[in-house]
Amino acid sequence: MLAIELTGITKRFPGVVANDDINLEVAEGEIHAICGENGAGKSTLMKILYGMQPPDSGTIRIQGEEVELHSPAQAIELGIGMVHQHFMLADQFTVLENVILGAEPMRSLGRIDFDAGREHLDEVGRAYGLDINADDLVESLEVGERQRVEIIKVLYRGAEILILDEPTAVLVPQEVDELFRNIRELKASGATILFIDHKLDEVLEIADTITVLRQGRTVGTVKPDQVTAHDLAEMMIGSELPVPDAGESTVTEEVALELSGLRVAAEGDRAVVDDVSLSVHRGEIVGIAGVEGNGQAELVNAIIGIQDPDQGTITLLGRDITHVSVRHRREMGLGYVPQDRHRDGLLLGFTLWENAALGHQTEAPYSRGPWLSRPGMRGRANRIKDEFDVRTPNIEVSAHALSGGNQQKLILGREMVAGPAVLIANHPTRGIDVGAQAAVWDDIREARSRGLATLLVSADLDELIGLSDTIVVMLRGRLVARLDPNDITPRDLGAYMTGAALEAGAP
Amino acid sequence: MTERLTHRLMLASAAPVAAVVIAVVLSSIVLLISGSNPLAAYADMVQHASKLETQVDILNRATPLYLSGVAAAIGFRMNLFNIGVEGQYLLAFIVAAHLGAQVELASVLHVAFILVVAMAVGGAFSGAAGVLKVTRGVNEVISTIMLNAVVISGLAAWWIVEWQAGGEISATGGRVGTEPIAESGLLPDINSWLEVFTREVGLGKKLTGMMLVAVAVGVVYHVILNRTVFGFDLRSSGANPTASHVGGVSPKRMVVIAMTLSGMVAGLVGMTELMNTGYYPSNPISLLGFTGIAVALLGRNHPAGVAVAALIFGFLDVSSGILQISGAASREIVEIMKGVIILTAVIAYEVVRRIREREEAAAAAAAMAAGPAEAS
Amino acid sequence: MHKRLFSLLAILLSFALLATACGDDEEAETVAEPEPAAAEPEPEDEMADISVGLVFDIGGRGDQSFNDSAAAGIERAVAELGITFTEASPEPDGSNRGELLQLAASAHDIVIGVGFLFEGDAAAVGAENPDTMFGVVDSAMLDFSGDTPTPFGDNIAGLVFAEHEGSFLVGAAAALKSETGKIGFIGGVANVGGLIERFEAGFNAGARAVNPDIEIIGDYITEAPDFDGFNAPDRAKEIALAMYEEGADIVYHAAGGSGAGLFQAALEQSDATGSKVWAIGVDSDQYHTADAGVRDHILTSMLKRVDVSIFEMIRSVIEGTMQPGPTTYDLSVDGVGYSTSGGFIDDIADQLDAFKAQIVSGDIAVPTEP
Predict the structure, then answer these.
(1) Hey, are the CB atoms on A370 and B230 less than 8 Å from each other?
(2) A265, B86, B206, B239: which has the fewest Cβ within 10 Å?
């Protein structure tokens, strides 16, 4: 019996065929992984299955019945539930309140029947082996627990087919293990799981069946015991999966960036960055590991100058820049690749050549004195486009016409051609496809060999371990460990990030 | 390439053309419903506007509207809604009128002094709203509305009494104005410039010399905005303050500067009247500040676009008279046409923007599919 | 940004609607009377080939006061003198008064601007069109720049009123009808060269002529150059309610469109307290022009006979007797007066007529400054 059968699903967006004649068969009670690079069409396919977007053509069968889905509500009725990558929870509500939100059991006179809700919640928890305290405030929960609340929310509404959209992206390895245990429990209780991911080892570990998408098409459906990660990678991108690799050390004695006793306070004088001292040498990549929200963002803001530290000093190339303006720091050779391209990196409605100047508009060849130089801006933009392989018809289009990966290459190129002494790379490969990811890594490595000092903040542990010369771990605003990437695994690093390794008394 | 250029040009001009066509159609319907003959009304308007004297009226009307539109546009470029142009120009008007009457200077210096005072007052007053925004988080819409009230029913009301020309109140209570500025402080009309191309201007109509100042303001606005680092800072900070901040542009600084510049241009709005009459009257032309917002909107904050919008508004305002006198239609039709033009222009621009965005996305997707970018 | 754009648009549209709503409801049509020398037996020689361009002030017809009174005058001139006319009103910002006068001058024999705000433009346009006769209501049309005031031109007349005399009569009426011994005055805009203060002076003098001990509360809504006071009914209502609360039972206004707020206040105060309070209107008979619901509270109105002045001015042009400079229309020619609609002051008509006679004869000199 097939839980889901998709036949010939096609979906076009302006200029892009997101799904091109996709076929997918998911058996009842199996864990079915959908893999593919970013932009391969996974998300679109799931949105179609969840009723958020109608397909242009093709048929959908659920439990053998042909259906037309027009809304998530309809999908939920058919027993399909979706756990989004970004949680949709109200922080100030308890777990119970979040779970019943929108599906409240009612008593007379419009009162909510919390007892019935709690009973049903406990039932669901027991049935699927999911352990959660109904009265905890969501804001007090760890990321993994929040995800569990999302899953319970879906199950509470009677879902038998669960779509999990990149559920491991936000988790540290220990939490991933927990998630996988839960998923297996769900399967044992009879649920069908659609698992979207692009981390091949995870997929091989958890899935019963794997369907690979590439450029909107189904490349093939395989069993995990028949393939290796290498095979899957080939299917996904048509070539071998790139791995970050720092290569020979190029670290020099010369300190490019030095932080000393840095403290940044949030509201109420709570230190979000607490007594951080760190130096980055020319030719060195220092990786900062840490679960998001442990002060990395504030640390980066203090270094680039948009947040004032209240104690400590920042030294760039031997000069104290603690209270120097952002512009001056940039002119002194501080490059920055932001975490959120759209918010911090680009002027989406502006042309590429204007974006190529952003942050460097006071420098040659973008300007001379107070005057902009359009030829200089266009020339640089074309150079960035060529050297960093920014795929665009020309440099006159606006930035939002580009895909995420190409936007990121534009930003990295912009920072690199300015010849920085220090680069702050904040999640430089987040949300971009494998090809662009490899290009970004190559570029950073190459600049390192020319003497660039890089501070790399990332949630991708493979990236951190692969690229960094040194890794420091940030926990609750402090640097709690300094590690050698050559003898640490992602698993160990994850233990440091959650603080588990420290409590266990590890080095 | 030429084909693509033509296509781009067509897209760019599609919006304003569509807006005007739709506005004419809708206005015709309104005219028909109200029992007027649209063709007769349009014929009156066109015929009236074809007279040289009317054209002088249109330019005189468009000049302060243009300045007001540019003042609003500077704010919009920075994502600021300076609704206080109204108060800024009236305050600059009365202060410049008063101080201008106190000094004796050589002609050019006198005019320059008055214009500088007006710009300084407008800039300081508007800049104050900017400072309030960045230091106290007061939304500029709220603060400029409040400051409008401070000027209109406060400072100007007080000073007009304080500074009124002594003993020149007519027996029946006609006029209360400030002391008149000496001849040296007035900007002569530029009829002679116009008459080089045309016949002599009749009916005592005088083309305001402030038109030259407005043109200069437009050129400076264009150059600063598009050709200088500062202009780039301003545009980028307006489009995306966080990205711009990361790129070295302090958003707070830009807010204060943009509000100040906007106020400086606003200060010039009232100078069209002052440079002609030489005093601040009891009933200065009002509402120019608010109309300027519409002019900036229609002109897409673009220096030339705002000029076209100011001329369209000037034309419509001047047409209101002939429609009434000839009996072709009531003057409300002019207000309706303004509203319809703005509405259709905004919608048309939005449609064109989406078309362009879609085409760009398609081209970029095609480039991606085509493989690595080729060196060009 | 787009959200911002649309909220902006909404604001602009509401401005446009407001501007439209402020205007008159009817079409500004050419009221060309096709039957020359119709019914009225006014045997003028050159009837029917005189045309008048009437330029209202902002708002046009329907202001219940000034413009409406002018409209009544021009319609009487159509009926009795057989003239033709067109009418126009300026942009809401008052930017095109001069243009309208010029346009009217190019098509008409006589051009009349309703309101002193036409003063400067009429002087300029009048100089350009020496063959057209110009009249400006409420302005002396004198040039004060020389040593002695002189008319702006031989073709330019000012139509002014002895408002203080009319105000005297309604002040006397208020004092005669007041039961609390307390009355009030609301001015629209202070310091417009003493324009509105004249009303207050006459009103106070009339009241004291009846009752020297009467208490008079006076207030202005705004001060020049803030002309909102002429069109701020909400603020007038607040002021009026405060006066009624203080014990005034009759309040007179000289505040143009703001008067509607006074009338509303009188109605509400009466309903709330059960004891009837009154309002006195201004310029035209507001018993007829105000909302029907409030007319029972309008004791009388001080009539500034803009209609008389316009009619008389047109007639003087036809008869060739027009005087350049100011012509004051006072009680002796019924240029000012009071209304009796509703019959609320019929019982004191004799006393008021006596005051009127004393003023006309010069026995009472009405002051012009409070």
Answers:
(1) yes
(2) B206
Rounded CA-CA distance A114/A122 in Å is 12
The set of residues, in sequence order, having a beta carbon less than 8 Å from that of A504 and lying 6+ positions away, is A495
pLDDT for the residue C249: 93
**Interface residue B184 vs chain C (CB under 8 A):** no
CB B275 within 8 A of CB B84: no
For A173-209, the pLDDT digits (tens) are 778 888 888 888 888 888 899 988 877 778 888 899 9
The band of A503, judged by pLDDT with boundaries at 50, 70 and 90, is: low
CATH topology of domain A2-237: Rossmann fold (3.40.50)
**Probe site for chain B from A301, A321, A326 (most B CB atoms < 10 A):** A326
CATH of domain C163-304+340-361: 3.40.50.2300
For residues A86 and B56, give the distance between their C-alpha atoms in angstroms, rounded to a whole number. 61
Q: Tell me how far apart the alpha carbons of residues A431 and A405 are, in angstroms, rounded to a whole number.
A: 8
The size of chain C, in residues, is 370
* pLDDT, tens digit (0-9, with 9 covering 90-100), for B164-181: 665 444 333 444 677 788
State residue A243's pLDDT score.
64
Q: Would you kindly state where each structural domain of chain C is located, as residue ranges?
A: 24-161+307-318+321-329, 163-304+340-361
Interface membership of B348 toward C (CB under 8 Å): no
Q: Please tell me if residue C272 touches chain B, with a CB cutoff of 8 Å.
A: no
- Measure the CA–CA gap between B72 and B301, rounded to whole angstroms: 8
Mark yes or no for CB contact A393/B364 under 8 Å: yes
C94 contact residues in B (CB cutoff 8 A): 283, 285-286
C311 vs B335, higher pLDDT: C311
Helix (H) or strand (E) holding C299, with range, is strand C298-304
Contact (Cβ atoms closer than 8 angstroms) between residue C67 and residue C22:
no
Contact partners, residue B224, CB within 8 Å, separation at least 6: B230, B231
Contact flag C23-B332 (C-beta cutoff 8 Å): yes
CA separation for the pair A163, A181 (Å, rounded): 16
**pLDDT digits 0-9 by tens, C28-46:** 334 444 444 444 444 444 4
In C148-167, the residues whose Cβ lies within 8 Å of chain B are 149, 158, 160
Nearest CA in chain B to C97: B321
Query: CB-based contacts of B10: which residues, under 8 Å, 6+ apart?
Result: none
Verify whether the Cβ–Cβ distance B176 to C160 is below 8 Å: no
Question: Is A304 within 8 Å of B243 when comparing Cβ atoms?
Answer: no
Q: Residue C97 to residues B318, C6, C248: CA-CA distances in angstroms?
A: 10, 33, 40
Please report the pLDDT score of residue C7 as a whole number. Answer: 53
* Nearest-CA distance B222 → chain A (Å): 13
Q: How far does B234 lie from chain A, in Å, by closest CA?
A: 12
B51 Cβ contact list (under 8 Å, min separation 6): none
Token pair 């008509």 in the structure block, residue: C349
| CATH number of the domain to which B151 belongs | 1.10.3470
Task: End-to-end CA distance of chain A: give it in Å, rounded.
Answer: 53
CATH topology of domain C24-161+307-318+321-329: Rossmann fold (3.40.50)
> In chain B, which among 110-169 make CB contacts under 8 A with chain A?
none
Domain that holds residue B158: 37-329
Q: What are the angstrom distances between the C-alpha of B290 and each of B61, B147, C8, C98?
A: 14, 14, 11, 22
| Stronger pLDDT, A488 or C28, i.e. the higher one | A488
Look at strands A57-62 and A65-67 and give their pairing: antiparallel
Mean pLDDT of all residues in chain A? 85
pLDDT at C21: 42
How far does the CA of residue C166 sit from the closest CA of chain B (Å)?
A: 15
B86 inside domain: yes
